[in-house]
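Journal club side-thread
Mid-discussion, someone asked how the predicted structure for our own chain would compare to the paper's figures. Pasting it here so we can look after the session.
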Amino acid sequence: MGCSTSLLRRNKKMAAVPEVIFVPALQVPSASELQRALRGLVPASLIERLAAVRDRITLVAACTGAVIKQFAPVKTSFDYDDNLGNWVSVYAGGSATTELKHAVEEYLPLLLGLTKKEFGLDELVEFEWKYLDDKPKETCISSSWFELLSVIYMLGLLTLSEANSLLIPNEHSASEDGAVSGDSTRNAVDLLLKASGYLAFCARSILANLSSEIKKKLPRDMQEGILEALCIQALGQATELQLGLAIGSQKATLSVKRRLACEQLTYFSQAHHQLTASEIDEDSAIKKHSLFIRWKYLEAKAAAYYFHGMVLDKAKDPSSHVSAMCCFLAAEQLISQSKKACLGFCLAAPVNRIPPVRGTIRHLYHQLPEMISRKSMVCGNMLEQDKGSHELPDLPEFELSLRPDDYELPATSTEWNRDDWEILGQPLKNHLEDSEGEGKTS
C-alpha cells in the first residue's frame, strides 16, 4: 500500500515519477470452485461463463506489465531494470486498466445471481483472492458477497489508478514545473469522486450483508474503518486538486481558496479519525496509510492557515494584521512538520521515493516566506511587545462540498432467469427432482 508510482519515458530511459494519489495494493481473483460447487444447480453454460470471465480478470490483472503491480521489494539502484523496486503502476498505453474494468463490469451481472436469496447459492462457492506482490497473501472465503465486495473494491482501486495516470506529467502536455493541464486535473477530480463512490458502496452497502465471522476474515484494508478512510481520503485529494486549480485561476477569490483549504483539512481529519479508530496493530500497510494521512493532514492545515491569514490581512484593523501574521507563522511551522511527516511516510516499510513538490504546497513554499518577511516589518514590533497575548485564530468551518458519486449495482444477468434453465430440453427443476428420485430408488 502506498503512493502509486508511474513510469515516464524520457530520452529512451524510464525515470520513476512518484505521485501522491494513494492507491492500496491491488488484489486479484485466484482459484475458485465454481465448476464443482455449482454443477447440477445452475446451467453448465452459466457456470462456464462465470468461470471464463473471472479467469479473464485474473489473466489481465496478473499479466506482466499489464496493470498495477504494488508492494515490490525495494532495490538498491534505480536504472531501468530496477525501477520497479518501489511501488509501481505500469501502464501499457493505458489500455490494460480499461480492459480490466470492462471484464469486471461484465462479471458483475453474472455474479449478482449468486447473491440472490431465492437461489440459495451464497455460501456454496469458496472464492480466493491474493495480493499482487512477491509474497502473496491469500484470502479464501465461501461467500458470494465477499466476492462482490472484492470486485467493487477492485473497481475503486482501478479508478484511483486512472486518476493518478492523468496526473503524470509528460513532455508534450506538462509545464516546466511538472504541472499537468487543467483538463487532466479536472478529469482526475471526477475519477476520485467515482472511486470514492465505489469505496463508500463497499463500506456502507456490501459489508452489511456479511456475517460477523466473515468480516473477521477480511483483509485489513477491506475492513469498514479502512474503507471509510480511503473513501474520505479520495474526497480530500479531490479537494486538494480543486484548490490547486483555484490557485492558478485569476477568477478564484481568496475566500474560495480558504474554503477549499479548510474543506480539504476536514476531509483528511475525518480520514485520520477513521484510521486511528481502527486497530492498526503491526500491520505495516495500514501504518503506512496512516502516515500518509498524517502528512496530507499537516499540508492541508498549513494551507488552511495560510489562506485564512491572507483573508485576515485584507482587513483594515491592526489586530487582524497581527492575527494574519500568527496564521502565517503557524503555516510555516506546519510545513516544517509536514516535510518530516512526508519523509517518515516515505521511509516506512516498504520504502518509496519522495514525491515532487507540486500544486498547493509548491505555492506555499514560494509565497509564504515572502509574506512572513513583509508582515514582519509591519507587525514584528507588535508581536514582540505583546508576546504571548496573541492567540492563533480559529479556522472557519464550512459545509463540505464534495460527496462520493452514487453507485448502483447493474441489473442481474438475464441468464439467471429460471424459466430458461433447461438441460437437454428438460427444465432444470425437473432434472434435479429426477436425480433425487433416482438417488432414493438406488
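Post-session note: Residues 4-19, 69-94 have pLDDT under 50 and may be disordered.
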